[in-house]
Design a protein that fits this description.
146 residues; mainly beta; 13 strands; five-stranded antiparallel beta sheet
């Protein structure tokens, strides 16, 4: 796993209420044909199975953080999101334990994720949520800019 700066999201003009529900993903400024349900790209990592994108809806007072696992040819393998109506799930940092496990730190709560090498859609997702309390200490921490 290592942090990259390869991708970006298309910018929207006008008031927030008029923005489309999905935003096009750009690879070095070029359209990829993939649209994701978010407006801000917080973090991006190259992982053993492809890429992990950490996205945010940027909605005032109702933050939803989305984790999107992509293949090397930019197909969605798995997607998970954390959020709730009228609640803020603003990501403070990503802490990597090893190349397949990381912890999403939301300040008052922490959620662990495992990148599985195989999966079954809806039954065993490739991006699995786990309890990180029994994991070893994180090796690398990436702070989210405010």
């Amino acid at each position: 796993m290592h942090a990259i700066e390869r991708f970006s999201l298309e910018r929207h003009a006008g008031p927030y209420e008029s923005w489309p529900r999905r935003t096009r993903l750009l690879d070095a400024g070029a359209p990829t044909g993939l649209a994701l349900p978010a407006y801000v790209l917080l973090h991006q990592f190259q992982v053993p199975c492809g890429f992990l994108l950490v996205l945010d809806d940027n909605c005032p007072h109702e933050e939803i953080t989305t984790f999107c696992l992509l293949t090397a040819d930019l197909r969605v393998l798995s997607r998970r999101w954390l959020g709730a109506p009228y609640a803020t799930f603003y990501l403070d940092a990503i802490e990597w334990v090893d190349e397949r496990r990381f912890v999403a730190d939301f300040g008052d709560c922490r959620r662990g994720f495992v990148l599985r090498s195989r999966g079954i859609p809806y039954l065993l997702p490739r991006l699995a949520l786990r309890d990180p309390r029994c994991w070893p200490a994180a090796r690398v921490r990436f702070e989210t800019a405010r």
